[in-house]
Design a protein that fits this description.
5-stranded antiparallel sheet, two-stranded antiparallel ribbon, elongated, mainly beta
Length: about 100
C-alpha cells in the first residue's frame, strides 16, 4: 500500500493498528510492528496484513451493486522519534463494476 508524507522531515514509523469498515460493517483489522521511514515530502510502499472473513466480503459484493461501496479506514501509527501514536483516517466510495 502506498503511504505518503507531506511533512518536511522523514517520519520514522514504528508500527500501526487499523480497522476497515465496508458498508458500515467492520470488515478487517490488523496491526504491524514493521519499521519504515517515510521520506520528507515523499512516498513509500508498506506491506499490510489483513485479517478478514471471506463470507463478509461475499455478502457485501452480492448486495446492491449499483450503489458505490462506502469504506472507512482508521487507526494509528507509532512515530519513533517523538514516541507518539498518531491517528489517521480515510473514507470514500468504491464503485463496483462487474
Amino acid at each position: 500500500m502506498p503511504v505518503a508524507s507531506s511533512n518536511s522531515v522523514t517520519l520514522p514509523i514504528r508500527g500501526w493498528h487499523y480497522k476497515l469498515q465496508l458498508a458500515e460493517h467492520e470488515f478487517a483489522k490488523g496491526s504491524s510492528d514493521q519499521e519504515i521511514d517515510i521520506p520528507a515530502h515523499g512516498e513509500t510502499q508498506i506491506d499490510v496484513d489483513i485479517d478478514a472473513e471471506l463470507t463478509k466480503l461475499l455478502r457485501l459484493l452480492n448486495a446492491d451493486r449499483r450503489s458505490p461501496l462506502i469504506y472507512r479506514l482508521n487507526g494509528d501509527v507509532g512515530v519513533a522519534a517523538q514516541a507518539l501514536q498518531m491517528p489517521f483516517k480515510a473514507e470514500g466510495k468504491i464503485k463496483l463494476n462487474f
